[in-house]
Amino acid sequence: MEHLQAYRAAGGGKHRANKSIEARARNRRLLIAAAVLFAAGIATTQSKAQSGPFAPMAGSWSGGGTVTLDDGSTERIRCRAKYAPIGPTMELSLTCASDAYKFNLGANVRAESGAITGSWSETSRNISGALQGRGGGGNFEVVASTAGFNANISVKTSGNKQNVAIRADSQFRGANISMSK
Q1: Per-residue model confidence (pLDDT) at position 175
Q2: pTM strictly above 0.85
């Protein structure tokens, strides 16, 4: 009997089996709390992404169109875009390719009172520059520029459809792209 009393005193009056059950219950509560915090974090990120001038563009898009080169020739292209807006800022990437032509456009932009500013890069040609223009609600008119290159870019978003038109004064004359989510 003394042995049983000493055993219970050492364990705080609880059996080992109870400790295991309590530990599992505590771990389950911690797991549930972590899941709730994680879900709240996602909801906060989504609500930030869903507000602001770039919100209609959020997500991944794909489609195709044509690219026009300086000799006047056109080629069909396939495109993918990813837009990651957070409030008044957005990171974007647009990759388009045909059998003989490819471009990878990336940009970081900011909207303030309808004015758009930011930077862009085209990685396959190793060029970069500044962006500026106007717009909101997923519809924008911007100019991408760097030394020796200017391009007018128009983006029109309506629901899950998007049209991108690019006009440039270089070897790459322009592109017309239609995408959907």
Answers
A1: 92
A2: no
